[in-house]
Specification:
- By secondary structure, this protein is mainly beta.
- It has a single domain, classed as Beta Barrel (Thrombin, subunit H).
- About 15% of the residues lie in helices and about 50% in strands.
- It has 1 helix and 6 strands; from the N terminus they run E-E-E-E-E-E-H.
- A 6-stranded antiparallel beta barrel has the order 1-2-3-6-5-4.
- It is globular.
């Protein structure tokens, strides 16, 4: 049985990604309640634990995929509707 993929919302939110080896600037290019894709030059490995700070909130995540473009992150706890809407609103205002 195929696992249903969560709907992803476009975003353009800059944030700081923290790892045991340092902090890196990245951009969330899409986000869902369960995860996000972080774009940037990120020296990350699959399975690595990271945290990101966006809109003054820290969210724990795990790296689930790495590509030359960035990394897919799975949140430790799903975003609640308010957190997801905040990210979506930021994207809508940023794109004006």
């Amino acid at each position: 049985m195929l696992k249903q993929r969560a709907d992803r919302l476009p975003s353009a939110l800059g944030f700081e990604l923290s790892t045991p080896s340092g902090d890196f600037a990245a951009t969330i290019v899409n986000v869902s309640p369960s995860g996000a894709f972080a774009e940037g030059s990120l020296p990350l490995s699959i399975g690595e634990q990271v945290s990101l700070t966006a809109l003054k909130q820290t969210v724990g995540a795990r790296v689930v995929r790495v590509s030359p473009r960035g990394a897919a992150l799975q949140f430790e706890q799903p975003l609640d509707p308010v957190q997801l809407e905040n990210l979506r609103q930021y994207r809508d205002l940023h794109m004006l």
